[in-house]
Write a structure and sequence with these properties.
With about 110 residues, this protein is an all-alpha fold. The longest helix has 26 residues, at about 25-50. The protein is extended and about 50 Å long. The chain is about 80% helix and about 0% strand. The chain has helices spanning about 1-20, 25-50, 60-80, 85-105.
């Protein structure tokens, strides 16, 4: 996990350097703020994974239920209370995607 997070920060630096070369204050400030948030997030995830806090603690049988209930709640919050039809379509697509993942199909 730590190597992945470090690689992600390096990618941010790679593109961020190009932004800094433009020497535009708003863009430079945005990059620096984004980098600070990404660094803090990486440290949080790295610390949590080292302490075993990111391990799945549920059962494999319940994973699909957790996935579906969490996705449904996130979509309702994102789309607003009045958008029930699109949420159901997204749930259906996510269930289909989850089935494809479980069966080993690749999604392009």
């Amino acid at each position: 996990m730590k190597e992945y997070l470090e690689e992600n920060l390096k990618n941010i630096d790679f593109y961020g350097f190009k932004v800094l070369q433009l020497k535009k204050d708003p863009d430079s400030a945005w990059y620096k703020a984004y980098k600070a948030v990404a660094t803090a997030f990486s440290e949080l995830i790295s610390d949590a994974s080292e302490q075993g806090q990111l391990a799945w603690k549920g059962s494999n049988a319940d994973a699909e239920g957790v996935f579906n209930s969490t996705l449904g709640q996130s979509e309702k919050a994102f789309r607003g209370a009045g958008a029930s039809a699109p949420v159901e379509e997204v749930k259906k697509q996510s269930i289909d995607l989850l089935a494809d993942i479980k069966s080993g199909k690749t999604v392009n």
